[in-house]
Description:
alpha+beta; Alpha-Beta Plaits; 2 domains; three-stranded mixed β-sheet; 6 helices; 5 strands; 23% strand
Amino acid sequence: MLFGRMKLIMNIIDKIVLVIFSLCIAILSLALALFPFQGIEMISRDNVYMLIDNMIGNYIYTIIGIIFLLVCIRFIVITFKGNKAKDKTTYLIQRTDHGEINISSETVVGLVESVSEQFTGVRNIKTRVDILEGQIFINLKGEVIPEINIPKTTEELQLKVKEHVENCTGVNVNEVKVLITNVTAPIRNVK
């Protein structure tokens, strides 16, 4: 849940920076387009030379240039990276007497998270679902509280996730892997 919020905040920040960056590029483009016309004094050759002379020794322009360079690199990375979450969406296809049913891997992730969020003893669970040739493989990664029996708890989690997904989708779950990455601090009741 926290990961989803952080991703949403990063997307909003990226959009704001993209708008500001686009406005700056638009202003620069407009200045370059109007520069050849002699009638506009604000963009005259003398004013451009004066601006360049004022830039010498003023390191604020260096900082602005570095910021623009970092923004460019960020957008290049985003462009090549793309949205891999959308690219990795797979579908579980079931055929019935009435037609075809497609269940996305995100739907199965939602089913798994509905069980794992209510599960006691395991926290901060990240879910990955792979659907390969009509078979479901579920990978859970999370943390446990100190007081629990890890093998027993994770086995119960695997069983509940498997049963819930199978009941909701009608397809057998081939594997539920659980990776415990850390022990979290217990939540204390404040009185």
